[in-house]
Amino acid sequence: DGGITQSPKYLFRKEGQNVTLSCEQNLNHDAMYWYRQDPGQGLRLIYYSQIVNDFQKGDIAEGYSVSREKKESFPLTVTSAQKNPTAFYLCASSIGKSYGYTFGSGTRLTVV
Amino acid sequence: GQNIDQPTEMTATEGAIVQINCTYQTSGFNGLFWYQQHAGEAPTFLSYNVLDGLEEKGRFSSFLSRSKGYSYLLLKELQMKDSASYLCASETDSWGKLQFGAGTQVVVTP
User: Fold this and answer.
1) What single string gives the DSSP state of each residue in A25-52?
2) Size of interface A-B (CB pairs under 8 A)
3) Is the pLDDT of residue B90 over 70?
């Protein structure tokens, strides 16, 4: 079955460390997105990629980095420069306009 | 930007009807999505409106007025499992990128 997989489900990070969140899809979708969600809030766009080897900053890209070397994969690195990284991170993919997103199950990142 | 406004929280009793309103900026607008999100889970698709009017899908209906920058999601015959956050999302470019509202937390009481 096709889908989008995020791992790990829970992640703990010490202050000053970089961590990478995985997002893999086998839906053959061109576009992939990373969102951050804080308690009681909506989804804020971090980065997005609409084609392999290309990506764009979203509304809150500072302290994050991404790569898109393969169509299936869009990993997100949370760097030590991100001041408040504790949040729920959602990856999504889309086949294009009017189809909406398929979401991964999310990664909950906690800084300890 | 694409400011999207929706109420923070709504409470209703089991079996009742609730209407969640959403307003958005119309510039660059392609279409309007509604998603349901239970706590700690990923959002799931509920509806998509691109033309003016009402789309009905079982207990859930969604309405769009493009000229007014307005949509609503109507939940009928509320069940306890409908307690969730409902996200309004505007499609803002030709690739399908979505801008999300903050979500409306619906609390269904017995």
Assistant:
1) E-S--SEEEEEEE-TT--EEEEEEEEET
2) 64
3) yes
For residue A59, the number of C-alpha atoms closer than 13 Å in the C-beta half-sphere is 14
Residues of A in contact with B101 (CB under 8 A): 42
Three-class SS of residue A21?
A: strand
Mean pLDDT lowest among A2-6, A105-109, B83-87:
A2-6
Q: Could you tell me which residues come within 8 angstroms of residue B39 by beta carbon, excluding any fewer than 6 positions away? A: B84, B85
Region B75-99: what's the mean pLDDT?
Answer: 93
Report chain B residues whose CB lies below 8 A from the CB of A7.
Answer: none
Chain B residues with CB inside 8 Å of A5's CB?
none
CB contact under 8 A, A31 and B101: no
